[in-house]
Write a structure and sequence with these properties.
Elements lengths: L2 H36 L16 H63 L2 H28 L2 H6 L1 H12 L5 E6 L8 H22 L3 E8 L3 E8 L11 H12 L3 E6 L5 E8 L14
Parallel strand pairs: 1-2
Antiparallel strand pairs: 2-3, 3-5, 4-5
């Protein structure tokens, strides 16, 4: 083989080897670039694997540290915002109950008094006005309950979810509930998150799903509890997540829960919230031992 041909082949082999080495060396950077364009702070835990050598590995480690900090700051910020939102909902609900509700109640009582004294020709019209006022009062009370679920404070999560299913039941939409009786102890924040996710899930069903049946399921698991909101509507398809779903994701982050939207077992959509419940630490002193 002529010398120049040998040199050409040798150079070609060197180029191929360098290209392969370069591809291997740049692979971690490609993974990092993909992570930068797809990472979502509402879906925590997504991290590119640290790979490569020297500065490449240091760059990926620095990026992961930055995402950790951003997720912590986002969670803290969301907690403050949602806490303020709950406080504002309580205030508005209280004003609806104390001001608007009492005013409508007074109007209703006055209408009943006037209807009793009205001429027969106006009595039927007065009754219609009474019914309209009573319907308005019921609507104000329903809105106040949705803003501030007093039943959650007074009777607990199971009763609140049953009341929620009743509130969303309407002609054309039947809402059932299946709730385990042996739920583990849940703190106040976890109960509020479970209730609000169920509420937002049913709101989406009523507004967008065109469903005939919906179901709330709350069951115990070996790590905590799972909430399902299912419907038999037309599903979400390829539609982008709206503010309601992103709000559910933010609430889930507050208690370290996982949120998933998947096709329902019978069609439609299933919202699944998995809430971990820490295992109580055994304390010998509480059992009378010193």
């Amino acid at each position: 083989m002529p010398l120049f041909r040998r040199i050409f082949l040798l150079n070609a082999l060197v180029l191929i080897a360098n290209a392969r080495l370069l591809r291997v060396g740049l692979a971690p950077l490609h993974l990092l670039t993909r992570a930068m364009t797809t990472i979502d702070l509402l879906r925590p835990g997504q991290r590119p694997a640290v790979g490569g050598q020297g500065e490449v590995a240091e760059l990926i480690t620095t990026f992961n540290t930055m995402v950790d900090r951003l997720e912590e700051e986002r969670a803290a910020s969301s907690a403050r915002v949602l806490s303020a939102q709950e406080a504002e909902r309580r205030r508005v609900a209280q004003e609806l109950h104390d001001e608007v509700g009492q005013t409508l109640t007074a109007v209703l009582l006055e209408l009943e008094r006037v209807a009793g004294q009205a001429p027969p020709g106006l009595r039927e019209e007065m009754r219609q006005v009474q019914e309209t006022t009573r319907a308005g009062l019921d609507e104000v009370r329903r809105i106040a309950r949705r803003l501030r679920p007093g039943v959650l404070d007074e009777l607990g999560l199971a009763s609140a979810l049953k009341s929620l299913a009743t509130d969303f039941g309407a002609p054309g939409l039947s809402v059932r509930h299946r709730l385990d009786a042996d739920l583990p102890p849940l703190d106040r924040e976890a109960e509020v998150v479970l209730y609000r996710v169920a509420q937002e899930g049913l709101t989406n069903v009523a507004r967008h799903a065109r469903a005939r049946h919906a179901e709330i399921v709350l069951r115990r698991t070996h790590t905590g509890v799972e909430l399902y909101v299912r419907d038999d509507g037309h599903g979400t398809g390829d539609a982008a997540e709206g503010a309601g779903i992103r709000g559910m994701r933010e609430r889930a982050l507050l208690v370290g829960a996982g949120l998933a939207l998947v096709p329902g077992p019978g069609g439609g959509t299933e919202v699944r919230l998995t809430v971990p419940v820490p295992t109580p630490v055994h304390d010998p002193d509480r059992n009378g031992r010193s």
